[in-house]
Write a structure and sequence with these properties.
The complex is a heterodimer of chains A (224) and B (85). Chain A has five helices and nine strands, in the order E-E-E-H-E-E-H-E-H-E-E-H-E-H. Chain A has 224 residues and is an alpha+beta fold. In chain B, strand 1 and strand 2 form a beta hairpin. The chains are: A alpha+beta (224), B mainly alpha (85).
Amino acid sequence: MSRILVYCGFCHASNISLPSVGVNAAPVQVASFDNLSLLWSEVEWPFDPERMQKSAVEFHEVIHQVFKQTAVIPFRLLSVFEDQPAFKAFAAENRQRFLQDLSRLKDFVQMECVIYPAPSQTQVDRSSGKAYLEQKASALRSSEASVQATQDALAHLSREVRVREGKNGTRIFLLVERGRENDFRNAVTAVSLPSHLSRRMSGPWPAAEFLSEQVKMPQNTGAK
Amino acid sequence: MGHGLRTRLSLMPNDFETLETLGGEDEVSLLEILDHVLNSGVVIHGSLVISLAGVDLVYLGLNVVLTSVETALNNLQIEEKRRQK
């Protein structure tokens, strides 16, 4: 059976070059709802797990080709609409909210920095329970200080910041003006880290972390 | 379906090995792509979204990520069959 897979939404502009092929070689089509354009494909559903990785990369590439040119609102890969009427009803219901977010985010990209423990660098102190806990507390303080130092170093570049603590590290999301990605990388690199911590940077990504809640999880009845 | 998937994944390189995409302009890791396409953006049907108790996929190993994808797809197929009855 087939379903409607939506890649992303963006503000219509005639000079934007669109990808022609999407997931599993399906033609990419554009649906316009006033000034909002949504890219979509008709795909076989459910996806073949054997080519899940490939589908993920193909999905990413469609979004990224548009994102290189303008701000986009990405959809998630494993979400589909049952049919065209459901898709169109969704777009009609959410068009205005999408356009508001696109307008707010039009000049920005999302950059990310993850600060996480470097396991091989840390010798666990097992001499006593107290020593172990003190070591853990010290590592936590040090990690918090490094996250704060990174945020401070990026303050002049960040329109907004989100920090998410994970089991294995801290993930910092920044809304950075498009074109200043290298400034972000240079600012992060300039922050020294203690030997027991590592970091990884990535981006630019679509500003998905900074979407409004109504756009991230819109109300709709037609999706499957 | 799981066995075939795991067999194929065992051939994958390190989780954070980079893939050259978009004509070599950008380098991002496969795991980061998976994390973003599965964990970021608009949710149009909550039950289909892969969520591991709020843990970012980027923190997890690739096998764990794709096992979760596999489970989600299994659930999807079960759901589809139930809907068809």
